[in-house]
């Protein structure tokens, strides 16, 4: 699960906060949970309908080492990811 936190320093880039639910996922499925377990990442291919700040989205991600946002030195840089698939959303309770 990821929450859209804000736009990033370059147009079209968004910061996502990942919820660390890997232990729960691994126990349920018995499979490897992946490299990204929590914290913040940035992406430029989040579908437009999910770009609202506060939106919680269930996504599959992969690390993107090909390119990233161009930011001035005062911006925080986060790992760059690609959204592989949007699996659903969750409204705040």
Automatic annotation (TrEMBL):
List the source organism.
Pontibacter rugosus
**Organism placement in taxonomy:** Bacteria, Pseudomonadati, Bacteroidota, Cytophagia, Cytophagales
The protein's name: Uncharacterized protein
Superkingdom of origin organism: Bacteria
